[in-house]
């Protein structure tokens, strides 16, 4: 793993910005797509070989799984920001402490999350209003999937560590291996062993474990600044570094969870519309999420680049990074939605050939994919603020606008007109309100940073 490792690093502190953002981001895009391929492979296998009820069961779990994974990914961003800032500030001893602390935090945090999730899995599914005909399969898939949360948490922290120094390809290689394994095991368990939804869930669990082990071995064998010594994990645990990671990571995780929490309410409303609506949403989600992979990748790139440069005291370069990230995001968010909207109906057919399911899926794609330009802006501005250490403000904005508007919409507009299109309109409305408020927040903190620079050196805000 150490051979050629330096060639995977990106110099974020000097030279061109846009080209390096792109080089950093494209493996992240592929990583996000492959992460979704886990879910896509499950939906495709069940939709083609088991039936639309099994497909709907996975769809019912998507918001719950998204809730857990969003929290883990968000907290791992805290590790990314802290380690990147130490690298930018040329503090190798602090990098080592932060890396070891991150790994131990990942294990403890994700184990606790797994135990809590397993405890409340059944009540949560009942709260969602999952129909009885798919409840058994839904719970089976969820409980098996939750067993893999420690592996998912460890992978996200490990990937954040690699990305903090500009290496986005190693996590991608790991995910390619585990994604291929997941597909092979899906086919082997369902077609070869005659298993049902449990076979698909176990395939995903095994692939997630392999994914985490691969990156852990990479960190243990590398001889550079990110090297991990397993026997020193407890000794190098640093409570202050843990607090710094959580100070940035928890609000980022909460921001991601807010999206998932609001989607839980929407999923409950979707469930009230029947199996066709559930199947359509599951299929459309596996398509539309690929647009978000691009958005999220650019947001993570912005966070890492801003964090390193802020640690090095290059505030003007941080501002240029944000501007160029917004431009790249705008170009991508015009091209990607246009492609998916044009080919969306054909893509949906691969998941399920039922005409009504496809019709509803097209409606969802229109409402969710069309405003991607706005969604991209939200992610870039949030990413920039996190890079400076201001992780709480975008989380609060998201809580108020995303969660508040969507829940209000479900219990007012949708309750008055329980139509699938009416329900989906909650997405663009909430994103637009969030973007407007977030622009004001970003401009405020930008001015604050300029004033602060005149008086003090950069700190962990």
Tally of helical segments:
15
Silhouette = globular
Number of domains: 1
Biggest β-sheet description: none
Give the radius of gyration. Answer: 21 Å
Oligomer: single chain
Structure notes:
The chain has one domain (5-453). 83% of the residues lie in helices and 0% in strands. The chain has helices at residues 18-49, 52-88, 92-127, 132-146, 149-164, 169-192, 197-221, 239-271, 275-311, 315-351, 355-369, 372-388, 392-416, 420-424, 426-453. Helix 3 (92-127) runs parallel beside helix 8 (239-271), helix 9 runs parallel beside helix 12 (372-388) and helix 13 runs antiparallel to helix 15 (426-453). Residues 1-5 and 456-461 have low confidence and may be disordered.
Summarize the structure.
The chain is mainly alpha-helical and 461 residues long. It has helices at 18-49, 52-88, 92-127, 132-146, 149-164, 169-192, 197-221, 239-271, 275-311, 315-351, 355-369, 372-388, 392-416, 420-424, 426-453.
Chain-wise SSE layout:
Elements: H1 18-49, H2 52-88, H3 92-127, H4 132-146, H5 149-164, H6 169-192, H7 197-221, H8 239-271, H9 275-311, H10 315-351, H11 355-369, H12 372-388, H13 392-416, H14 420-424, H15 426-453
Keywords:
0% strand, 83% helix, mainly alpha, disordered N terminus, disordered C terminus, 461 residues, 15 helices
């Amino acid at each position: 793993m150490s051979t050629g490792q330096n060639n995977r690093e990106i110099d974020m502190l000097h030279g061109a910005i846009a080209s390096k953002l792109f080089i950093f981001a494209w493996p992240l895009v592929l990583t996000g797509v492959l992460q979704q391929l886990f879910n896509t492979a499950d939906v495709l296998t069940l939709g083609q070989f088991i039936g639309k009820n099994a497909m709907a069961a996975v769809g019912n779990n998507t918001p719950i799984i998204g809730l857990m994974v969003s929290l883990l990914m968000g907290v791992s961003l805290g590790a990314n920001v802290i380690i990147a800032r130490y690298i930018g500030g040329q503090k190798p001893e602090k990098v080592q402490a932060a890396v070891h602390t991150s790994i131990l935090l990942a294990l403890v945090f994700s184990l606790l999350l797994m135990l809590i999730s397993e405890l409340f899995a059944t009540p949560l599914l009942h709260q969602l209003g999952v129909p009885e005909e798919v409840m058994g399969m839904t719970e089976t898939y969820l409980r098996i999937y939750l067993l893999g949360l420690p592996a998912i948490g460890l992978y996200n922290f490990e990937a954040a560590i690699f990305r903090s120094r500009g290496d986005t390809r190693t996590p991608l290689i790991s995910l390619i291996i585990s994604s291929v394994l997941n597909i092979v095991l899906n086919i082997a368990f369902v077609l070869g062993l005659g298993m049902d939804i449990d076979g698909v869930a176990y395939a995903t669990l095994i692939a997630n474990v392999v994914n985490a082990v691969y990156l852990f071995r990479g960190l243990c064998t590398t001889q550079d600044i990110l090297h991990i010594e397993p026997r020193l994990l407890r000794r190098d645990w640093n409570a202050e570094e843990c607090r710094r990671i959580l100070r940035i990571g928890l609000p980022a995780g909460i921001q991601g969870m807010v999206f998932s929490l609001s989607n839980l309410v929407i999923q409950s409303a979707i469930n009230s519309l029947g199996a066709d609506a559930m199947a359509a949403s599951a299929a459309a989600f596996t398509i539309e999420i690929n647009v978000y992979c691009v958005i999220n990748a650019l947001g993570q790139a912005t966070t890492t680049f801003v964090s390193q440069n802020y640690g090095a005291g290059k505030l003007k370069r941080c501002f240029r990074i944000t501007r160029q990230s917004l431009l790249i995001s705008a170009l991508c968010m015009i091209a990607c939605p246009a492609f998916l909207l044009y080919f969306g109906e054909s893509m949906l057919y691969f998941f399920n050939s039922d005409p009504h399911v496809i019709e509803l899926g097209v409606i969802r794609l229109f409402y969710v994919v069309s405003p991607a330009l706005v969604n991209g802006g939200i992610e870039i501005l949030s990413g920039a603020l996190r890079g400076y250490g201001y992780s709480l403000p975008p989380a609060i904005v998201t809580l108020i606008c995303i969660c508040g508007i969507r829940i209000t919409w479900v219990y007012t507009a949708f309750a008055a007109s329980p139509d699938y299109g009416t329900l989906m309109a909650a997405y663009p409305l909430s994103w637009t309100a969030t973007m407007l408020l977030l622009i004001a927040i970003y401009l405020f903190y930008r001015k604050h940073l300029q004033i602060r620079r005149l008086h003090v050196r950069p700190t962990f805000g």
